[in-house]
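Technical annex B. To support the medicinal chemistry partners, we prepared a structural model of the target in complex with adenosine-2'-monophosphate, based solely on the information shown next.
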Amino acid sequence: MTGGTEQPELHSEPRQSLRLFYALWPDDTARAALASLQTAVSGRKTPYGNLHLTLAFLGDQPIASLSTLQKILAGLSVPDMTLTMDRIGYFTKSRIAWVGMHAAPEGLFTLQRHLMSALAHQGILADTRSAFKPHVTLARDATAPDELPFEPVHWHASHVCLIASSNEQQGAQYRILASNRANPPA
Ligand code: 2AM
């Protein structure tokens, strides 16, 4: 013991965990088309490069789990899907304006279920508080959008990514840690 008052740590400990989620990640064409729908909503727009469709939100996970999470991603059979994003909606409680589908393909639900069961099989807890409602968040702190007709976005979705999210001064920053893509049709 040297005595004296304890000083707060000047350098934080190296991160032991990462805030993670799996998502369908749009290509440039789909991203631009999804972003064009943001003019239809109010609130804090999702930054262009962050637009995605969450499949499973894991929250903080130990870094030691990363290799398991990457293996789960690599083991997923990713279907080649066209998502017809034809519905603007609103989550009242979280004040999120989103775009989704009147009829999501069954393959999307199968993909999400396989992912959730692979996670459960490894004892990894994903957020299961609410049923999977496939959507792309267009804006937060939004008011309920008007139900105006719009040209649907046909998103050729073929990339599932494992993403680390961090809260920086300029807002949420996403970093793609790994990805798995559908085999192109023969
Ligand atoms: P969203 O899908 O409605 O936009 C990273 O935070 C992503 O995971 C966001 O897209 C976010 O919401 C989604 N997500 C799902 N459940 C979450 C939760 N409990 N906390 C934070 N983000 C969550």
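Notes passed to the chemistry partners:
The beta strands are 17-24, 44-45, 53-62, 81-85, 87-91, 96-100, 136-140, 153-157, 159-168, 171-181.
Residues 82 and 156 are 4 Å apart (CA to CA).
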